[in-house]
Specification:
single chain, 322 residues, six-stranded parallel β-sheet, three-stranded antiparallel β-sheet, 13 helices, disordered C terminus
Length: 322
């Protein structure tokens, strides 16, 4: 006897035929992957199984119906990607790689800290990650966003950065506003271009499936079914951080990354990144991951450079040569 059951009412039998696939291929794949019983009764899909099986199977059909309304067809690759995403939480404890669904490309954690970070993103809706340069904070978050998009867990990716000047003033840079903020947003685009081919990224951006925006442009928006990444969050004020976090809509996930040692805010301004991590700890669904020097995966010298700058009392030039 089943632990749980639910039914999905369809407007007509043609939709059931398209959802089940040629020769019921889609529904067989779902049954094998998730273990639920799936039966068509009249114009209703009836799902039976354990509570978790029914929940996951119902979510897969919800995503399939969204694709059907958008594209008029659900292909086998889309079903496979969705099933891979639905099984992701179970694989996390085994150190599963991040599948990008791009010519068998995958991103694998290279340190235990990075694996904890990936697991946290899989298991929580709001993740704060702090750590030094080169530890993979941004790269892994973008990889998880691409995985979520291509496995139909979300509909969009929004990549956000605060446009805080580090020496130069925006107003003196050449070009229009987009040209002025491009240097701030470039690292996020570089990470995505490293994972997907250029043409795919271009199409995503043209169709607003992927959006890369300065933090100031987020005001007044609500983002549903979206994977949102705020990079360089140490350069946000408390007000900006509150504004950003409250953009989160239904079915969305947020990852906030920052390095508290590299803030470009004026000395009298409290970082919204540090404030949020202290203020929101203990709230269910929110977690903090701290990456350290041993998680740095850039050139070996980066680890030594970070270590040297973390010293409380660096030597003066005269002491270095004595």
């Amino acid at each position: 006897m089943s632990d749980a059951s639910t039914s999905i009412q369809l407007p007509h039998s043609d939709e059931a035929r398209l959802l089940f696939g040629p020769g019921d291929a889609h529904v067989r794949k779902i049954r094998e992957a998730l273990g639920a019983s799936i039966v068509l009764r009249g114009d209703s899909i009836v799902i039976d199984g354990t509570g978790e099986q029914v929940r996951r199977t119902n979510e897969i059909f919800k995503r399939m119906r969204e694709i059907l309304r958008r594209d008029g067809v659900v292909n086998e690759d889309a079903v496979s990607r969705m099933l891979s995403g639905a099984q992701g939480n179970g694989e996390a404890a085994n150190g599963a790689a991040i599948d990008l669904f791009e010519k068998a490309k995958k991103v694998q954690a290279r340190t235990r800290g990075q694996q904890r970070y990936i697991d946290a993103i899989r298991q929580h809706d709001l993740v704060f990650c702090k750590g030094p340069a080169g530890c993979g904070k941004t790269y892994l978050a973008v990889a998880m966003a691409v995985n979520a998009l291509r496995s139909e867990q979300v509909r969009r990716i929004v990549l956000v950065r605060p446009a805080v000047e580090a020496g130069e003033k925006l107003g003196f840079l050449p070009g229009d506003m987009l040209a002025k903020v491009n240097p701030f947003l470039r690292p996020l685009l570089d990470a995505m271009n490293d994972m997907l081919n250029f043409e795919q990224v271009r199409l995503y951006m043209e169709n607003d499936v992927v959006e890369i925006v300065p933090l100031a442009f987020m005001r007044g928006r609500t983002l549903n079914d979206t994977f949102i990444i705020l990079d360089e969050a140490q350069n946000t004020t408390i007000t900006q951080m509150k504004m950003f976090l409250t953009r989160m809509g239904e079915g969305s996930k947020i990852v906030v990354t920052g390095d508290a040692t590299q803030t470009d805010l004026p000395e009298n301004i409290t970082s919204g990144f540090n404030d949020a991590m202290a203020r929101l700890q203990g709230i269910q669904g929110v977690t903090l991951v701290e990456l350290r020097g041993e998680d740095i995966v850039r050139h070996r010298l980066v680890r030594e450079i970070v270590k040297a700058y973390d010293q409380d009392h660096p030597q003066s030039p005269s002491e270095l040569h004595s």
